[in-house]
Amino acid sequence: AQERDALRERIRRLLAERDAVLVAHYYTDAELQRLADETGGCVADSLEMARFGAEHPASTLAVAGVRFMGETAKVLTPGKRVLMPELEATCSLDLGCPADEFAAFCDEHPDRTVVVYANTSAAVKARADWVVTSSIAVDVVRHLHRRGERILWAPDKHLGEYIRRETGADMRLWDGSCIVHEEFRAAELAELRRRHPEARVLVHPESPAAVIEQADVVGSTSQLLRAVVELDAPSFIVATDAGIFHKMHEAAPGKTLLEAPTGGRSATCRSCAHCPWMAMNGLRSLAAALERSAPEVEVDPATAAGARRSLQRMMDFAA
Length: 319
Ligand code: CIZ
Ligand code: SF4
Fold this sequence. Notes:
Layout: H1 2-17, E1 20-25, H2 30-38, E2 42-44, H3 46-55, E3 60-64, H4 67-76, E4 81-83, H5 92-95, H6 99-108, E5 113-117, H7 122-127, E6 130-132, H8 137-146, E7 151-154, H9 157-167, E8 171-173, H10 186-195, E9 200-203, H11 209-212, E10 217-218, H12 221-230, E11 235-239, H13 245-251, E12 256-259, H14 283-292, H15 301-318
Parallel strand pairs: 1-2, 1-3, 3-4, 5-6, 5-7, 7-8, 9-10, 9-11, 11-12
Helix pairs in contact: 1-14, 3-4, 4-15, 8-9
The structure holds (~{Z})-2-methylbut-2-enedioic acid (CIZ) and iron/sulfur cluster.
(~{Z})-2-methylbut-2-enedioic acid binds near residues 45, 46 and 178.
């Protein structure tokens, strides 16, 4: 405990020395989320993290999250230094959608509007017409569908199928998935609901359709967090990364939160609904990154300009 206190102190000092602010994702460890809150940083979903970083006066952003989040921060604020504890922290959606293969997929469907999820590399975003997050995906695709546009969607097939069901849009889907949300199990969830009939079910749309079907609320991390506070229910079954429980407990201290059942990827994982790449972020690696001012996220200017264009479309639509 003493060592962790010392680490926290060192990080506070380094943040000040480097003119840096810590932005942490909801799925990172609670101690990083706490430190971000205590040092005037922010804890948020991927897009809110980027927005906060853009508006904050610090010249360096220390991004605790996964690589595409660091890239998005760099794309939106090219003048800032973006440090990450671990550049190898990635995402199965990003990994499963390499830019060259994605460009070939787009070339096969030149008549379709290309909409990609925020969980992609800057290079994939640069090839897209639109970037969306899970909080705005249905609204954007409905808008495009009403304009008569047909959609090419990547990379998450579960989110893509969900958007298609909600909007009725004509969508071609890339075959990608999140290794965390894909593990939620419909039969076991139904069983848990039988044992807790008072609980409301909150599901992130990266989950399989049979899990989404059982949800009272389907939404992004921020939307699920809001639901815990706003819905008048004593308990909730939550199907998203367990990292979110820190903020949920903080925001709604009296409520009972239950983890939605997973298939169980490994016998050793603390919680199977916890992203192994998010877990690469820790106090020690953060302190080292600040100490060395590395590793730094770089995005080449042409790619950044392309990604900024499709991100900006989403932000203009949301405004
Ligand atoms: O699953 C993820 O990685 C999410 C929900 C990211 C984000 O904040 O949009
Ligand atoms: Fe990617 Fe899933 Fe991890 Fe989010 S939780 S970063 S979508 S692998």
